[in-house]
């Protein structure tokens, strides 16, 4: 069975492009595009890895990640964080709340793919 | 400034005009003739009792000898000396310097003030870049669009045997996103270029509004004389806001003008003039006459033309102590926004909003000027169970009055430039502590 990725991102064309490259690589891709009920999506989808944007409408990616980490059933899901701000402050914040990796926009498709593969492999 | 505006020189001129000899004046002032000689040549700083005695002997008001441009100049020179202590400017000979080289002294003071203005502008500019939500949002938009384009473009470039429908879709996305990117980039450039001219000061919105109001002397005739004050707000705003750089400052000015119109509606100009002619400039009596709170009367008095009511200053702060308005008068200085001297009665009024205060104020560095200060506070929002009312403080500054029942209080401007060494309220060392 294919491994499942949950992509939480609010920019539709980024969703489309990232979904496409992951599907081509053989992943099953689910998407979600706002912060409000992102936790419901994380619980429902039971993904092998979550790609999480920091700036989401409704709720920040940092807050969502905190909830993931404090949920006993989901706590050790690998999370790749995406942000448009490359500041050290954001990177530190991501590490503190428990991101497995942090990637700055604009990223390359290959980097996303490598990161997703590596994080899932590490986790197994 | 002419040489004659220095205290010592003025004393000398006055003495010679009276045909008085140094020894006579010295004995009248109970100082030695040689000390008087040093004073007259601006080689000794004087103040306090000696100044009062000399003034009495010369039969002039002490302020005539001390007040005026040179007090401001000396204060600015002290500030300049304090800002670069390591250069060890000869501050003990400050008055001599200002007296002997008035032009150079003015230049030093002006350059120091320029440096301070530029530093403040730089700070504002840095704040603007770091905390500007519009800039942050625009950049975020540009980065997001670039990310989408990069991703889609590399799919088209790198994917072998891509289905035509996917190919079309990514082509379309790139087209859409590149249009968005172009618009976003243009908006960003427009925004950055719309900043003030490189030569102009970068002012905070509050500073801009204060500058515009200061030009009107705080008297807004169209609102004062309109049949319906509120109706004159839009026109006044339009006229004044030509000089404002930002929407933020226009919004702040509108708020001020709305408040001004409300005040005028409750205490109209002609009624106020009539009441002043019978009651005098007595805020408590005026407040009773109009059935309003003291702060409203303070604001109304501070908005009347100076040729009608004399110099009237007004300081307004919120409950964090941040100064919202500074209408200054000679003899009382205020920092630009925050960091004012906690001894000001306005802050005491905030702590006891129902107990207004009236004191004579003497501000350090301007010891020879005493002002009558009245402070009061009023709630500016409606109290609810969730949020207590927010309170603003108001301090009216009037010329001193002959009234022994009013206590005199010594205060500073702001710790950094305050020479009062033994002060319980000091929160940071003064850059001028060595000067005195």
What does this structure look like?
Chain A has 124 residues and is α/β, with parallel strands linked by helices. Chain A contains 5 helices and 5 strands. Chain A has a single domain (4-123), classed as Rossmann fold, CATH 3.40.50. Chain A has helices spanning 12-24, 38-45, 61-69, 88-97, 109-123, and strands at residues 4-8, 28-32, 49-53, 79-83, 101-104. A 6-stranded mixed β-sheet of chain B has the order 2-1-5-4-3-6, with helices on both faces. Chain B is globular. Helices cover 54% and strands 9% of the residues of chain B. Residues 1-5 and 196-200 of chain B have low confidence and may be disordered. Chain A binds chain B through residues 11, 13-14, 16-18, 20-21, 24, 55, 84-85, 105-110, and chain B through 139-140, 143-144, 146-148, 150-152, 154-155, 158-159, 166, 169-170, 173, 176-177.
Structure, briefly:
The complex is a heterodimer of chains A (124) and B (436). Chain A contains five helices and five strands.
List keywords for this structure.
heterodimer; A: 124 residues; alpha/beta; Rossmann fold; globular; B: alpha+beta; 434 Repressor (Amino-terminal Domain); Beta-Lactamase; six-stranded mixed β-sheet; 19 helices; 54% helix; 9% strand
In the CATH scheme, what's the topology name of the domain at 310-436 in chain B?
Beta-Lactamase
CATH class of chain A equals Alpha Beta
* Low-confidence runs of at least 5 consecutive residues of chain A: none
Largest sheet geometry of chain A: 5 strands, parallel
Sequence-ordered SSE layout with sheet pairings:
The complex is a heterodimer of chains A (124) and B (436).
Chain A: E1 4-8, H1 12-24, E2 28-32, H2 38-45, E3 49-53, H3 61-69, E4 79-83, H4 88-97, E5 101-104, H5 109-123
Parallel strand pairs in A: 1-2, 1-3, 3-4, 4-5
Chain B: H1 7-17, H2 22-28, H3 33-40, H4 48-58, H5 62-66, H6 69-83, H7 94-100, H8 102-131, H9 133-158, H10 164-193, H11 205-215, H12 221-225, H13 233-241, H14 247-266, H15 269-279, H16 283-290, H17 294-302, H18 306-309, E1 313-317, E2 323-327, H19 345-351, E3 357-363, E4 370-379, E5 391-399, E6 408-411
Parallel strand pairs in B: 3-6
Antiparallel strand pairs in B: 1-2, 1-5, 3-4, 4-5
């Amino acid at each position: 069975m294919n491994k499942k990725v949950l992509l939480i991102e609010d920019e539709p064309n980024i969703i489309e492009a990232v979904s496409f490259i992951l599907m081509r690589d053989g992943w099953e891709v689910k998407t979600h595009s706002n912060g409000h009920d992102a936790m419901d999506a994380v619980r429902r989808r039971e993904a092998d890895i979550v790609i999480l944007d920091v700036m989401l409408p409704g709720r920040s990616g940092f807050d969502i990640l905190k909830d993931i980490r404090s949920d006993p059933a989901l706590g050790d899901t690998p999370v790749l964080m995406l942000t448009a701000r490359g500041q050290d402050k954001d990177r530190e914040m991501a590490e503190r709340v428990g991101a497995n990796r942090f990637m700055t926009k604009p990223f390359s498709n290959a980097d996303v793919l490598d990161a997703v593969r590596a994080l899932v492999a590490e986790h197994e | 400034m002419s040489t004659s505006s220095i205290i010592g020189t003025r004393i000398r001129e006055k003495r010679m005009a009276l045909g008085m000899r140094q020894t006579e004046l010295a004995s009248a002032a109970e100082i030695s003739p040689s000390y008087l000689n040093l004073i007259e040549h601006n080689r000794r700083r004087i103040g306090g009792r000696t100044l009062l005695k000399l003034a009495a002997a010369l039969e002039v008001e002490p302020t005539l000898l001390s007040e005026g441009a040179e007090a401001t100049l000396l204060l600015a020179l002290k500030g300049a000396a304090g800002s670069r202590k390591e250069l060890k400017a000869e501050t003990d000979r400050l008055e001599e310097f200002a007296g002997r080289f008035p032009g150079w002294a003015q230049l030093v003071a002006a350059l120091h003030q320029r440096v301070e203005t530029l530093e403040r502008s730089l700070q504002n500019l840095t704040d603007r870049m770091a905390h500007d939500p519009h800039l942050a949002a625009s950049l975020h938009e540009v980065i997001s669009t670039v990310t989408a384009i990069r991703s889609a473009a590399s799919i088209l470039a790198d994917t072998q045997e891509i289905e035509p429908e996917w190919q079309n879709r990514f082509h379309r996305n790139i087209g859409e996103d590149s249009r968005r990117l172009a618009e976003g980039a243009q908006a960003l450039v427009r925004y950055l270029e719309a900043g003030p001219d490189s030569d102009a000061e970068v002012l905070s919105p509050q500073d801009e509004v204060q500058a515009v109001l200061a030009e009107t002397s705080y008297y807004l005739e169209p609102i004062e004389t309109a049949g319906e004050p509120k109706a004159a707000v839009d026109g006044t705003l339009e006229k004044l806001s030509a000089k404002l750089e930002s929407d933020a400052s226009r919004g702040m000015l509108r708020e001020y003008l709305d408040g001004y119109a409300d005040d005028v509606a409750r205490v109209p100009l002609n009624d106020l003039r009539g009441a002043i002619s019978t009651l005098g400039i007595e805020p408590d009596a005026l407040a009773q006459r109009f059935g309003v709170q003291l702060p409203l009367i303070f604001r109304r008095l501070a908005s009347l033309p100076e040729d009608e009511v004399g110099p009237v200053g007004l300081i307004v702060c919120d409950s964090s102590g941040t100064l919202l308005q500074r209408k200054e008068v000679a003899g009382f200085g205020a920092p630009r926004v925050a960091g004012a001297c906690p001894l000001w009665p306005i802050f005491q009024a905030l702590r006891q909003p129902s107990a207004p205060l009236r004191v004579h104020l003497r501000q350090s560095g301007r010891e020879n000027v005493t002002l009558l200060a009245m402070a009061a506070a009023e709630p500016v929002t409606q109290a609810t169970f969730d949020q207590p009312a927010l309170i603003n403080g108001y301090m009216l500054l009037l010329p001193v009055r002959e009234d022994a029942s009013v206590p005199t209080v010594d205060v500073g401007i702001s710790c950094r430039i305050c020479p009062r060494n033994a002060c319980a309220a000091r929160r940071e060392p003064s850059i001028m502590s060595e000067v005195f």
